[in-house]
Design a protein that fits this description.
The chain has helices spanning 8-18, 21-31, 50-61, 78-89, 106-124; strands at residues 38-39, 46-47, 66-67, 74-75, 94-95, 102-103. It is mainly alpha-helical.
């Protein structure tokens, strides 16, 4: 039958329909980088996902729903609680590629790696 032909576009459309709502949003975000359709009604900052906007809104409301079971400290985002809990366990899973040091968060490792980069730049330019 005409129109029933399976084309790559139709396969993509069928696969997209099978995905969950969150996955479709992820596909949209990667297809339109820089798009920030979710706008904060307090400060007008834009976000690519509604969940990012919801987390951001907590800055304005002061809500901190993620509580550390060890010390009771509260956080706006679950990821912040995740990294905070590493301070209690002393876990440092993020290892430096250039030296034996390790860090509890990717951000701390990035800051440390930047120090290696600055040092390498100084050596390249003839400074010690």
């Amino acid at each position: 039958m005409e129109g029933d032909e399976i084309t790559p576009f139709r396969i993509d459309a069928i696969e997209t329909r099978k995905k969950s709502c969150g996955a479709i949003k992820s596909v949209f975000a990667s297809a339109f980088p820089g798009e920030k359709p979710h706008i904060c009604n307090v400060c007008s900052k834009g976000f690519s996902t509604s969940s990012s906007l919801n987390t951001h809104r907590r800055i304005h409301t002061g809500e901190k729903p993620h509580k550390c079971p060890e010390c009771g400290k509260c956080f706006t985002a679950s990821s912040n609680l995740y990294y905070h809990r590493m301070t209690h366990t002393k876990s440092k899973p993020h290892k430096c590629a250039w030296c034996p040091r390790s860090y509890p968060t990717p951000g701390e490792l990035r800051a440390h790696a930047a120090a290696h980069a600055r040092h390498a730049t100084l050596l390249t330019n003839g400074y010690k």
